[in-house]
Amino acid sequence: MASNVNPTVRRRRLGQELRRLREQRGMTAEEVADRLLVSQSKISRLENGRRSISQRDVRDLCGVYEVEDRRVVDSLMQMAKESRQQGWWHAFGDIPYSVYIGLETDAASLRVYEPQVVPGLLQTRPYAEAVVAGALPEATAADIERRVQVRVRRQDRIRETRNPLRLWAVLDESVLRREVGGKHTMAEQLGYLIEMSQQPHVTLQVMPFSMGAHPGVNGQYAILEFPDASDSTVIYLEGVTSDLYLEKANDVQNYSVMYEHLRAQALNPDQTREFIEKVAKEYARG
User: Which residues form a coiled coil (predicted)?
Assistant: First the structure.
């Protein structure tokens, strides 16, 4: 990219603005689709930022919405142009979770619950290699390396000195007990977790087995919040073949409340470091 423009975020902001214009006109997505002779699903995808928006799309929609202010039209057209640029992750080819990477790159904070493996932002390279190879048993060595490179590059966000991503992660105890890559790799990985947990912008908590059932038993999820107030909070649910992004206020509220319960029930950060140190020593002893 020639600039710091994030195409994923540009698509989201443009989509939100187009939705606002539609609602101002009192029109449904179906009515707009009928006027433009396109599918309703296309209008929905344009508005939720999951589809690239061309300048022609913007021009046509502004016509339907009778936007007369040329400055508004020009601004939207520029956003459409920027939304079609490529982010750094495009250099690595087809990454199935590229939308998430774009959101993570621009997020101010990330709250995540992980029941199975260490969050990607906190993985050492040997651990990442073992996770990717295990999750994709039919992948070639080149594909594994490409994915690991993307994962390592993503970690730049929490290594930034001026404006790092604020990360809060609650890990199930199974994350520490699952021997990924062998005992040496696990000892190194847990040592890295302890190191990162001492950073002021990183908070780790462990949910021990002894806690029993808890609000995270339904699986992994992440909550992304952004520095611009116009960007809505996103709930991210990772899938095998497709991912789910939730932005409705009710969904965000429900997942946020659930996360507060997780944090309340998990070990506090100091107890978590002691717990991880204990498990790391077990791996180190072999």
Answer: none
Query: For residue 159, what are the CA distances in angstroms to 46, 187, 221, 224?
Result: 33, 22, 22, 18
C-alpha pair distances (Å), 54 with each of 13, 60, 61, 93, 280: 14, 10, 11, 22, 51
CA distances from 101 to 45, 109, 194, 249 (A): 18, 14, 25, 22
Given a contact cutoff of 8 angstroms between Cβ atoms, the answer to whether 180 and 187 are in contact is no
What tokens appear for 128 in the block? 């990442």
- Nearest of 22, 51, 48 to residue 36 by alpha carbon: 22
Are residues 101 and 150 in contact, defined by beta-carbon separation less than 8 angstroms? Answer: yes
Report how far residue 32's alpha carbon sits from residue 37's, in angstroms, rounded to the nearest whole number: 8
Q: Is 276 exposed, middle or buried (0-12, 13-18, 19+ CB in 10 A)?
A: buried
The percent of residues in the chain predicted with pLDDT above 90, rounded, is: 61
Question: What Cα–Cα distance (Å) separates residue 281 from each residue in 192, 275, 278?
Answer: 13, 10, 5
Residues 36-54 pLDDT 10s:
999 988 888 888 876 778 8
| pTM of this prediction exceeds 0.85 | no
Rounded to 10 degrees, the C-alpha dihedral 127/132/134/137 comes to -150
Q: Which residue type sits at 228?
A: D
Q: Mark the ranges of the chain whose per-residue pLDDT is less than 50.
A: 1-3
For the stretch 89-98, contacts whose Cβ atoms lie closer than 8 Å and that sit 24 or more positions apart, written own/partner, are 89/150, 89/153, 92/146, 92/149, 92/150, 93/146, 95/147, 95/150, 97/238, 97/243, 98/8
pLDDT value at position 266?
97
